[in-house]
Design brief:
It is a single chain. This protein is an all-alpha fold and about 575 residues long. The chain has two domains: about 350 residues, no CATH class; about 160 residues, Tetratricopeptide repeat domain (Serine Threonine Protein Phosphatase 5, Tetratricopeptide repeat), CATH 1.25.40. The protein is built from 22 helices and two strands. The protein is globular and about 80 Å long.
């Protein structure tokens, strides 16, 4: 007879391991809506499997800090400047907390399986990276290595988590593949070298020193070679860090971003601007500088989006993590894995002072994985009955299914329909594209980009539906007040209608937001900044002609007075371009 409980546990473990291995190797580790939806779906599938029957919910050492952190995340929505972005972050947080609970209950007693998964994933990434590097020589020597994760700092961030873990496991005598592990560790450092990621390299240096000091007083006299090896590795990493700085000089840019972030925090000190709202609100602080997705600092990001309350909750979570005792176990392998995992967190937090990697789904997942592994004891997943056992066999599966349908599946289907509409629009099939965009808006009404593209199709079909286009652009601006494309297109439609005052105001807004928060926001007929400047000039000249003809019935005295401001803004944009 089949033991259903045994099957359920193995299926959950398989899904959790798949989540660790799959994202960085096959989903390129970057932020795509497809990868995020797939990750969230797998987490919820594991949670659904877990909820079928009796849930063995065991208390974690981090229960209170995690609960306080969740509450502060929810509080930040009260003052959110971009509700759509905040809602997406809450969905991601809910899936990550569920992953945290399952990781502690199912992976904390399967540490060898966890380590083997990380080693296999590292082997795949390093092999692909170095293969691409040598195939594209000599161009690779002047370009930072980023393949297959799409960005050098993302690649460095992954190695910053795995290298300290492999380094600590290397000194466990019971490990049989130490030679092969040492070779993989060496090639991982070579990959890190060619990524030129200073933040990741500095993180690994500090993580190496962290491992050395927490084991310094437990070393015996016969283990002096370990000390020499540790110092040698630290010296090599230091040389890598110094030389890597030759290729990248971005510290001054980060200082500028931090100054803007500090001002943003001072303007919203209590609850912040809301989770996920940083890219939008940054427009108000960047001035003539470039636009950025995040603050390039994990503490600045929490301070800006969640205020002082959120910053305190995150700091408490990190402090509680490092206060967990690791020397109360007789299992040397378990101790080594937990020390290596904690050292990986040290490297991650060090890199996070110059890079905010939480916007990458896989790193957010790894963060909660480390909390789950270190917060639970080995005996957690062996508990069958106890104080913290609750039977949620009926309501929890239904809630998980509803959450998946409305919070993951619907937005995912809308995203698929939207991409199909974009492909049709690129081929000039506007009526068919309109159907796809209308389906995307129906499935996910609060997404500003879908309204922007739908408004574009209304102006391209024959005959054009100007009123519907204006309505969609206005809706897009209501959802996202920083949507430059909607402002620009709306100004053009106002101009065609003869509402010149509204056209002038909205065009000024578009010129102000000359960099947009999403690449897919670009109008379908506007792909380059130069084209936008040309269109703005054309618009200004036409407005000037109307002024010269003195059409006082259509141009109010306010427009006469503010028209020079439009010219100045256009010339400013042209000079900056």
């Amino acid at each position: 007879m089949i033991n259903l409980n045994w099957v359920k546990e193995r299926l959950i473990v398989f899904l959790l391991i798949l989540l660790i291995c799959l994202p960085p190797t096959f989903l390129l580790g970057g932020y795509t809506f497809d990868s995020l939806s797939l990750i969230e779906s797998l987490v919820l599938l594991a949670g659904l499997t877990w909820s079928l029957g009796r849930i063995n919910l065991v208390k974690s050492s981090l229960s209170l800090p995690v609960l306080f952190y969740i509450i502060t995340c929810l509080l930040s929505i009260i003052n959110s400047h971009y509700l759509r972005g905040s809602w997406e972050e809450i969905i991601k947080l809910a899936c990550s907390v569920l992953f945290f609970l399952m990781a502690g209950n199912y992976l904390s007693c399967r540490l060898k399986l966890l380590v083997h998964t990380f080693i296999l994933t590292t082997l795949l990434i390093v092999s692909i990276s170095l293969t691409q590097f040598f195939i594209h020589l000599p161009q690779s020597l002047i370009v930072r290595l980023s393949y297959p994760l799409g960005n050098p700092n993302i690649l460095g961030g992954f190695l910053a988590i795995t290298i300290p873990l492999m380094l600590r496991i290397l000194f466990v005598k019971t490990v049989k593949f130490r030679f092969l592990l040492g070779v993989l560790l060496l090639f991982s450092m070579v990959t890190l070298w060619f990524s030129y990621s200073k933040g990741a390299t500095l993180g690994i240096i500090i993580a190496t020193l962290f491992l050395f000091f927490i084991n310094l007083f437990s070393m015996k006299r016969g283990k002096i070679p370990i000390l020499i090896l540790g110092l040698s590795i630290g010296l090599v990493l230091f040389i890598i860090y110094i030389t890597a700085g030759i290729w990248e000089h971005s510290f001054s840019l980060r200082v500028c971003i931090w100054e803007h972030s500090w001002q943003m925090f001072l303007d919203h000190p209590i609850l912040g601007i809301g989770l996920g709202a940083y890219p939008n609100v940054y427009f108000d602080y960047k001035g003539s500088e470039r636009w950025y997705l995040h603050s390039h600092n994990i503490f600045f990001q929490h301070a800006c989006e969640m205020g002082i309350i959120g910053l305190v909750s995150f700091a408490w979570l990190i402090i509680a993590l490092f206060k967990i005792p690791l020397k109360n176990t007789a299992d040397n392998y378990e101790k080594a894995v937990k020390e290596g995992t904690l050292a990986g967190m040290v490297a991650f937090l060090t890199q996070a002072q110059g890079d905010y990697l939480f916007w990458i789904p896989v790193f957010y997942l790894y963060f909660w994985l480390i909390l789950g592994i270190l917060g639970y004891k080995k005996e957690a997943c062996l508990v069958v009955e106890g104080k913290y056992n609750f039977n949620f066999s009926r309501p929890i599966p239904i809630l998980i299914i509803l959450f998946w349908v409305f919070c993951v599946l619907k937005p995912w289907l809308a995203y698929i329909s939207f991409n199909q509409g974009v492909n049709l629009a690129d081929r000039g099939e506007w009526p068919e594209a309109k159907i796809k965009f209308e389906a995307a808006v129906l499935l996910d009404f609060e997404h500003p980009i879908y309204h922007t593209h739908l408004g574009t199709t209304y102006t391209r079909i024959q005959p054009p539906d100007i009123e519907s286009g204006i309505k969609e652009y206005e809706t897009a601006i209501q959802v996202d007040n920083y949507n430059r494309s909607a402002y620009y297109n709306l100004s053009w439609l106002y101009y065609q209608k003869g509402d010149f005052l509204k056209a002038q105001k909205t065009l000024l807004k578009a010129i102000k937001f000359k960099r947009i928060p999403y690449s897919c926001c670009q109008p379908l007929w506007l792909n380059k900044k130069e084209e936008f400047i040309h269109q703005a000039h054309s618009f200004y000249l036409k407005m000037s002609e109307l002024k010269d003809k003195k059409k006082k019935k259509t141009l109010s005295w306010i427009l006469y007075r503010r028209l020079p401001m439009l010219e100045a803004n256009v010339k400013k944009v042209e000079n900056e371009g």
